[in-house]
Amino acid sequence: DAELFERLGRKGSELTEVNGVPGSPHVWTARGLYGATGSTMDWLYGKRGIYAFSPEVYGGDGTLSLEKTGALTYTIANSTGASFNPPPSDIVTWADRWRSFALMLLAATPNVELASATPTEDALVLQLTNDGFLPVDIDLWAVDASGAEIATGSLSALRHDISGWSIPIKSTEPTTLTISMSATLQAGTVPHVVETATWTLIPEEGTWRLAEGTFTPQRDLGAAFGGWYAGPEWGTQAYTCGPGGCSNIRLPEDQWTPTPVPPTPTATPPPPPSGLFLPRLLNEASDG
User: Global pTM?
Assistant: First the structure.
């Protein structure tokens, strides 16, 4: 899941470059900040399959350095907490800096909807959407009014997109259908179901009416944040390094070779003007 963490982290760096403040670096906690094994984020991801982030909303220099002559330098932490709290006049500015990132993470969570149900001569074609950025594997079941299974299907790694599932059923043999859906998030070693839904469809005058559930068109939630993907510039050293090192995560679009820029030719400077020529040139320029 390193690629997915990196993509969300790069977008966070881009979205936090507001209010005259540079974008926040994104790092792996134990690599970019300090050793932190067994932290809450480890537990959330390792035991619950949650993509966890821990933004440090504000940071300042809150340490005191005392030097003892002829010995080591001692660094003493400032225990007042001032380094993690902005001045009261800046609270709104700094909170606003993280607002878009928080909303983006909410929008990125999976949300599966039924967009449409279109009959053909020998099938019913369903369009399902996931408007979230996190991909899910979708399992589907269709049963008739008697409870008999008509069809099963699956959609793999669906995210911020729409995909179709065709149920073989003849238009001359209409029957009430109940569609069940289960969406699984593949997170680390803890894949887990994050959403279930049921829709009941009734054939009616050449079309299908929803008796349970609703049709919801595909929505581009990423548009509110300038798209889901941040450019390669947000993966450079300036945005991926902390006191302990860098993330060192490469994405496919990073594997590019910049076009070499040819050196600018250096012209041979003309010989300096003589002592008599320079005053004449200055006088002529001032006269004209």
Answer: 0.77
